[in-house]
From TrEMBL:
SUPFAM superfamilies: DinB/YfiT-like putative metalloenzymes
InterPro entries recorded: DinB/YfiT-like, DUF1993
Protein name: DUF1993 family protein
Signal peptide: none
Length: 169
């Protein structure tokens, strides 16, 4: 049995977003336990030239939903990137998962050969659908999840590899 583009994308993105949601729950609990201001965690960065935790969540959301849109042709919802609380970040994750779950496997028909052209200013890569998913979209998605994990760990939140791996650890 071969793997379908749907199976290699939607369930993988959903699982990653659920892991991210659990990381945020641990971060919120940590802030409450330690009397920390949640804003400090939400705005924390690993380095000055890196995006904060909130933006890592936003980029993981965007990468998953826009990847599925590009591959399936089903329009993704647009979010404003204005989340400033754990509750808002959790809602964004839930809304992203709802969109991903709404896209049918049949919408991915032929997506492995679909031409995907990205436009990031001077960076304009072009891919076939399967190469896009496997060499760009999934690595980008997991970069943002790993960076969110690393920001939280750097801020003292007790998360480790098992938290990153989720239910499989």
């Amino acid at each position: 049995m071969s793997l379908s583009m749907h199976r290699v994308s939607v369930p993988v993105f959903v699982r990653g977003l659920k892991v991210l949601s659990e990381l945020l729950k641990k971060a919120e609990a940590y802030a409450e336990q330690h009397g920390s201001v949640p804003d400090a965690l939400i705005s924390a960065r690993l380095a000055d030239d890196m995006l904060p935790l909130s933006a890592q969540v936003q980029r993981a959301s965007d990468t998953s939903k826009l990847s599925v849109e590009r591959l399936s042709g089903v329009p993704a919802p647009k979010f404003e990137d204005n989340e400033t609380s754990f509750a808002q970040l959790q809602q964004r994750i839930a809304d992203t998962i709802a969109y991903l779950d709404s896209v049918a496997e049949s919408d991915f028909a032929g997506s492995e050969a679909r031409a995907i052209k990205l436009n990031f200013g001077s960076f304009q890569p072009e891919f076939k659908g399967d190469d896009y998913l496997l060499t760009f979209a999934l690595p980008n998605f997991f970069f943002h999840i790993a960076t969110a994990h690393d920001i939280l760990r750097n801020q003292g939140v007790p998360v480790g590899k098992r938290d990153y791996l989720g239910a499989y650890a």
